[in-house]
Amino acid sequence: RVPFLGGVGARDVLGRLTKEVDRLEDAHPAIELGLAWARQRAPERSETVVLHGDLRVGNLAVIATGLGHVLDWEFGHRGDPAEDVAWPLVRAWRFGVDQLRLGGVGDVEPYLERYNALTGRHITLASLDYWEIVGNLKWAIGALTQSRRHLSGQQRSVELAVLGRLAAEMEFELLHLLERAG
C-alpha cells in the first residue's frame, strides 16, 4: 500500500487538469475540447496500480543485458495501468520520428501485445487511444504552465519559453487525435 501517492482514476486526472487549465490566463479551445471529449468517455476505475507517471524512452537506462533502471519517479502516482502504457505515445516523445507512434522507436501493436503477454492484463488499443489523448492534454497543460514562469518573468529560461511553443504543437496533435477518435 502506498497511501501517500495521489491519483486514481481518469476522472481524478481530468479534475486536476481542469483546475490547472482554469489557472491559465489565456483561452485554449483545443485543450477545452480535449477535456470535454475525455470527460464524456472517461473509463470507470479499473485496476489501480503504482504508475511511474513519465514512463518513456528518455527515462530508461539500458545496459548490455537489457533494461537497467527506470529513472525520474517524481510523477509517481496510483492509477489505471493504461495511463503509463500510453504515455510514450505522446507526440512530444517521438522527437520528429512521427511515423513511429511509440516514442519514435516502434509501433504500438507489438508493444501492447508484449505488455499484455508479460503482465496478463488486457489493455485494448481503444484504452491506449483514450490515454494517449489524455497524455497529450497533460503535456500541453504542463508545457503552458511551465512557459508561464518564463513569460511572467518569474524564471527567465529559453527552455521554459520553448515549452510554450511545444504546447501549441500538443494542441494541434490533440485536434488530430480527436478527429481520428471520432
Number of helices: 6
Broad shape: globular
Order of helices and strands: HHEEEEHHHH
Q: What is the third-level CATH name, the topology?
A: Aminoglycoside 3'-phosphotransferase, Chain: A, domain 2
Can you summarize the main beta sheet? 2 strands, antiparallel
Determine the structural class based on helices, strands and strand pairing. Answer: mainly alpha
CATH homology superfamily name: Aminoglycoside phosphotransferase (APH), C-terminal lobe
Mean pLDDT equals: 91
* Termini gap: 38 Å
Compute the number of strand runs. 4
CATH class group: Alpha Beta
Which ranges are low-confidence, i.e. pLDDT below 50, for 5 or more consecutive residues?
none
Question: In order across it, which strands form the biggest sheet?
Answer: 1-4
**Rg, alpha carbons:** 16 Å
Number of domains: 1
Report the sheet-strand fraction: 5-15%
Please give the share of residues in helix.
40-55%
SSE layout and pairing:
Elements: H1 10-23, H2 29-40, E1 49-51, E2 60-63, E3 66-70, E4 77-79, H3 81-86, H4 108-119, H5 125-151, H6 158-181
Antiparallel strand pairs: 1-4, 2-3
Helix pairs in contact: 1-2, 1-5, 2-5, 2-6, 5-6
